[in-house]
Design brief:
globular
């Protein structure tokens, strides 16, 4: 195809930026804003998608043609992935010298101190404001806190910022005029797919992606950039030729039938968690604690699985649910159980030119199936796990374990199941004696490492204790409620302050 510039809507007009090298292909949105566009309201803080000082909002068209607004970390988002989309920054909000209700609420509630992080808060809150205005809803205080999980700079404290996020809805509505934005994005969709030979490709059809991947097996697949972005900003790596997945709508589909939940590998982590938590409400806690909202909106479930991090939180829960991966190479597909996908540290069964097309999760056949996922990290919200345990059992009417899946992250070079602990439980009565045998077997299953997050001894003891916690919640005789096992659940149930 003939090379063309990146084209996206910015400040009411179509902006164009050319890719002339691999370095240009990995220019971040923040770098372009501050260096090329002169929009310096967006700040660089951590430069790794954590602090939220760089937050902007990206607009795109959903499957029904409606405008979707999502906050993203501009410090790790590559500029070419804005092609065909709209970019909104803090410079877009105030009109004629009059502050937007979001900005005015932060002023009125004293939600800004040094002010460096404030533009990021403003953009997250604006996306929240637009979403609730469009739906005619009002967020709770807890929903506000969840939405702000990606903005970690809080020199004024939490209260005034949350107060401002609620106060902003008191002002007269001045919502974004969406019609011209939608019309502009529709016109941009008429452009040919973005491609720069040797640098960047953005196919739009699944078959085109498969053919391109087979022809260029050494190219790197780029989804949400939540990992690869850090390779560039922190490690200064040349990531090579990129094949971006964000425009392949077929990869983003989530379909549910009587047998399984079929999640396209390009579905966002937020959408994937929502589908899984609808079937298994027990996943809600790990869903809210997985990174931040902007990271979950950008990152994809397929990217998290294919990345293969031994401390990833998604593979353990998918293993506990008995998930399989649909892999594709050219026109051929094959199915591999997730249990068998990982071979060694950051090594898997993908063949050259092959990619993860979908994750297939069996439906919950029996509502009596017992499932819990526990995440242990130093910080409660938006932190990396020291240990993640996904534990599932099925017990028959006599109290005997007929099926068991214990999967752990952070305990080995890959996420994997605890085969010996499972064997100690399978076909046994779900009693404390069985629990003790399973806890002891974990020492055979894993020899964890010590690192900056936890020592080997801590990891093993924690994994054993989580197995006990699971038994306390699922035992036949007087199982304990979540409020008796989790200080945060207790706080929510009683209104107490932790």
């Amino acid at each position: 195809m003939t090379p063309r510039p990146i084209r996206f809507l910015h400040r009411g007009t179509v902006a164009e930026a050319a890719i002339d090298s691999r370095a240009a292909a990995t220019c971040t949105v923040m770098q372009w804003l501050r260096g090329d566009a002169g929009c310096t309201g967006t700040k660089e803080g951590c430069n790794e998608g954590d602090c939220g000082a760089c937050m902007v909002v990206v607009g795109s068209l959903d499957a029904k043609g409606a405008l979707r607004l999502e906050p993203i970390n501009s410090c790790i988002r590559f500029l070419p992935t804005l092609d065909g989309r709209a970019l909104f920054t803090v410079e877009d909000l105030a009109q004629g010298g009059v502050l937007h209700p979001v900005q005015q609420a932060l002023v009125d509630c004293h939600g800004s101190q040094c002010g460096f992080c404030t533009p990021g808060f403003v953009m997250t809150m604006w996306a929240m404001w637009e979403r609730h205005r469009a739906a005619g809803t009002m967020p709770t205080r807890q929903q506000v806190a969840d939405d702000l999980s990606g903005n970690l700079c809080r020199c004024t404290g939490y209260r005034p910022i949350v107060d401002a996020a609620l106060r902003m809805f008191d002002a007269p509505a001045t919502p974004l005029d969406r019609l011209p934005v939608v019309a502009a994005l529709q016109r941009l969709q008429a452009d040919a797919p973005l491609t720069i030979d040797g640098c960047f490709h953005a196919p739009r059809a699944l078959d085109d992606l498969a053919a391109l991947r087979a022809a260029r097996p050494e190219a790197r697949l780029l989804a949400g950039s939540t990992d690869i972005g850090l390779w560039v900003t922190k490690q200064m790596r040349d990531v090579g030729e990129l094949i971006a997945l964000g425009d392949v709508s077929e990869l983003q589909r989530i379909e549910i039938d009587d047998e399984e939940i079929h999640i396209g590998a390009g579905a966002s982590l937020e959408a994937a968690f929502a589908a899984l938590a609808h079937e298994w409400p027990e996943l809600r806690d790990v869903w809210l604690r997985f990174a931040s909202v902007p990271i979950r909106l950008a990152g994809t479930i397929g990217g998290n699985v294919a990345n293969g991090s031994p401390i990833g939180d998604v593979p353990p829960l998918l293993m506990a649910l008995g998930a399989s991966l649909l892999l594709r190479r050219g026109t051929r597909t094959r199915t591999v159980p997730l249990d068998d996908f990982y071979l060694a540290y950051l090594k898997n069964r993908l063949q050259p030119g092959e990619f993860v097309q979908a994750i297939q999760v069996p439906r919950r056949a029996d509502r009596a199936q017992r499932l819990r996922v526990y995440k242990i990290s130093k910080r409660y919200d938006s932190d990396i796990s020291a240990v993640c345990a996904a534990l599932a059992i099925e017990v028959d009417g006599s109290g005997r374990v007929v099926d068991v899946r214990f999967a752990f992250g952070g305990m080995a070079a890959t996420v994997r199941r605890a085969a010996h602990a499972e064997a100690a439980s399978r076909h046994q009565p779900w009693t404390e004696a069985t629990l003790q045998a399973s806890m002891a077997a974990l020492a055979v299953d894993f020899t964890p490492l010590s690192d900056m997050r936890a020592s080997a001894g801590y990891r093993l003891q924690t994994a054993q204790n989580l197995l006990r916690r699971f038994w306390l919640a699922t035992r036949a005789d007087a199982p304990l409620a979540e409020s008796q096992l989790n200080v945060w659940a207790r706080d929510a149930a009683t209104g107490a302050s932790v």
